[in-house]
Design goal:
Elements (H helix, E strand, L loop, with lengths): L12 H25 L25 H6 L23 H9 L2 E6 L5 H10 L7 E6 L8 E3 L9 H15 L6 E6 L3 E2 L1 H8 L8 E4 L1 E2 L7 E2 L5 E4 H11 L13 H11 L3 E2 L16 H5 L9 H5 L17 E2 L4 H12 L19 H13 L3 H18 L4 H8 L16
Parallel strand pairs: 1-2, 1-4, 2-3, 6-10
Antiparallel strand pairs: 4-9, 5-11, 6-9, 7-8
Helix pairs in contact: 4-11, 5-7, 5-8, 12-13, 12-14
Length: 421
């Protein structure tokens, strides 16, 4: 074969090359046009309108996604008492406290949250209360809510709180010894609440929660973390505080601050809810917030508000923690599983001995010691000193001890501008 036989024939090679190049460019431009218009052109075939796979909001994989996840449509159920792990549990002490420390839990909610939040409270921790009430502005058989004669909205939370306690006073005062208020995004370990309250008599004028220090001389309890009133405290609040001009008479204001002012005005003590080593039990945020060191800046408002200096890491939280706030509906079920079902095999927990019963005079003096104590050694020394002088002071009546300790009442007209707690 001659080399010349491989050359162009009839002069067509340049024309063929140009045609091929033009077709390639035109095809690329058309493909680009198609891909850029598939989202907007309904006339294109289905396979041209294919989009990126949608994110599955019901399948969260991180804590941030869980925060906004809605709860399950159906109840997740329970593990049966006869199953392998639960069959070996001894709940006799918890059952004893359920009889001896009766708690009525009432949950602050609103119509838009009945199905979204309150229902999941009802399906998890609320069933462990001796009695549960959901306080709203409309009746709803889904959660058996009470329709209070108040308007909804953050500016009416104080009005709703007063109306709720008045309703309880009128209809359920004898159904319990202690009365817990919680939000519909608060999670509560009721057994630990009973354990803490065991030392106290419901006839003591006292209430407990996550104690904050501004606005009220003796401090006040965070609304979001939940707070619990003794029967005597409920009586004083409804009978003496609500009608008294010293308590805010309209429905506006920060609910937890106004409650704190009223409690102090009628000589209801702000109790110390920490455990025996000074770790907190009521928390205004999710566990992650309190457990992780340096989770927030040092100037974060909570660190300034806390009555007792918060610790970080595991020292933040008691092993008998009671409540956490801002818990999403899905996280309610997660906490329920981790607390009541998950067990590390071979580690058998034994309950601490029940604490001794305290007189009101004991409570007042121990609380005063706690205010000036900065170390365990100091606390021990002062407690021994208190015990040596206890006999000499025994002639002082309880009422006198309370009055001398709580003489001053914060100006009720002082308006708080605190964050949502």
């Amino acid at each position: 074969m001659k080399i010349t036989d491989l050359g162009p024939r009839n002069g067509n090679h340049p024309r063929t090359f140009i045609t091929l190049l033009f077709g390639t460019v035109l095809g690329f431009m058309f493909a680009t046009f198609i891909s850029s218009t598939t989202v907007r052109q309904p006339w294109l075939p289905e396979y041209y309108r294919q989009r990126e796979p949608p994110s599955v909001v019901s399948d969260p994989h991180t804590g941030n996604e869980l925060r906004e996840a809605s709860g399950p449509e159906q109840d997740v159920g329970q593990h049966a008492a006869h199953e392998e792990v639960h069959a070996h549990e001894n709940a006799s002490l918890a059952q004893q406290l359920e009889r001896e420390v009766r708690i009525l839990c009432w949950v602050m909610t609103n119509p838009s949250n009945h199905k979204k939040k309150a229902l999941h409270v009802k399906r998890t921790w609320a069933g462990r209360c001796n009695k549960i009430l959901f306080m709203s502005s409309v009746e709803d058989p889904l959660i058996d809510s009470v329709a209070l004669p108040v308007s909804e909205g953050r500016n009416n939370l104080w009005a709703k709180t007063k109306a709720a306690f008045k309703y309880i006073y009128q209809h359920h005062l004898d159904d319990a010894d202690w009365f817990l208020k919680a939000d519909d995004d608060t999670y509560v370990i009721v057994e630990n609440l009973r354990y803490m309250l065991y030392s106290y008599s419901p006839s003591h004028p006292i209430y407990f929660g996550c104690r904050f220090k501004p606005y009220v001389k003796q401090g006040y309890m965070s609304g979001g973390a939940g707070y619990v009133l003794s029967k005597e405290a409920v009586k004083r609040f409804v009978e003496d505080a609500i009608p008294n001009p010293i308590c805010r008479q309209d429905g506006d204001g920060a609910e937890d601050v106004e409650m704190g002012k009223c409690m102090e005005a009628v000589k209801v003590l702000a109790g110390d809810s920490r455990d025996s080593v000074g770790r907190g039990r009521f928390f205004p945020f999710v566990p992650e917030h309190h457990l992780i060191p340096n989770h927030v800046d040092k100037d974060f408002w909570y660190l300034q508000y806390a009555y007792y200096k918060p610790d970080e890491g595991l020292d933040c939280c008691s092993d008998n923690a009671i409540s956490f706030h801002y818990v999403s509906p899905n996280q309610m079920y997660v906490l329920d599983y981790l607390i009541y079902h998950l067990r590390p095999y071979g580690i058998v927990a034994h309950s601490q001995p029940l604490p001794k019963k305290l007189s009101l005079g004991d409570i007042v003096r121990v609380d005063d010691l706690g205010k000036t104590t900065t170390t365990t050694t100091k606390k021990s020394n002062q407690l021994h000193q208190h015990q040596r002088h206890k006999a000499a002071n025994s002639h002082r009546g309880v009422a006198q001890a309370v009055d001398e300790t709580r003489q001053d009442v914060t100006d009720p007209d002082t308006k708080a501008n605190e964050p949502n707690t």
